[in-house]
Amino acid sequence: MPPSQRIVRPPADEKERRAWGETYAKTPYNQLPWYSSRPSPWLVRAVRNRWIRPPGPIVDIGCGAGTNVLWLSSKGFRATGVDLAGGAIDAARRRATRRGSSAVFREGSALSMPFRRSAFGAGMDNGCFHTLPLVQRAQYAAEVARVVRPGGAFLLTWIGREETRDFGPPHRPSLQEVAEAVESSFTFSQVEFFPPNSPDAWGASGHRLSRYTARLIRRRSAQPPAR
Known about the structure:
This protein has 227 residues and is of the alpha/beta class. It has helices spanning 11-26, 41-48, 67-74, 86-99, 137-147, 175-182; strands at 58-61, 79-83, 104-107, 120-125, 148-158, 186-194, 211-218.
């Protein structure tokens, strides 16, 4: 391959890859605090309300051990999961094999996903965005816009500034900060906030975190200029 065509991953991406690799190497996937054996209630509701419809295809960005992807596949979706952690993908593939699931799992960064342009009719992120520092958010949004077709839905959830307890993700963006990152490529169809006592809050009972959820639509044309 000529030097001009070689893919060079940014050092920060490799640093994150190693860190996530160590996490899954040290701790069984089903003992990690973000793991759930059940699909996200928010995702279940999105399918019930037909915000996304089978067969898709749909991609879960930061899929972890694949619970949401496996559930989507069982509901008739052509579902793919991508995660930076090789240990997460290995676990997801083992789970898919045990279930005889057609779900697909790929190792890759949310900032440079291993998919062609407009590969998916919809996308979702149930915990990746709020792990990214501010400087990477615009790149993330552009990459999601690259792989989701115009008119497709993107389901995004994140822990926001309202969650002030010590445990939880390192970066907790406000709604305004999320809009600044994604609005050039997506329109907001619906936004909700769930406090810790809500069934749609993040995490297991006793450690629930307040969260935002948003249903976004991939723009079909460029965002109009400011007036």
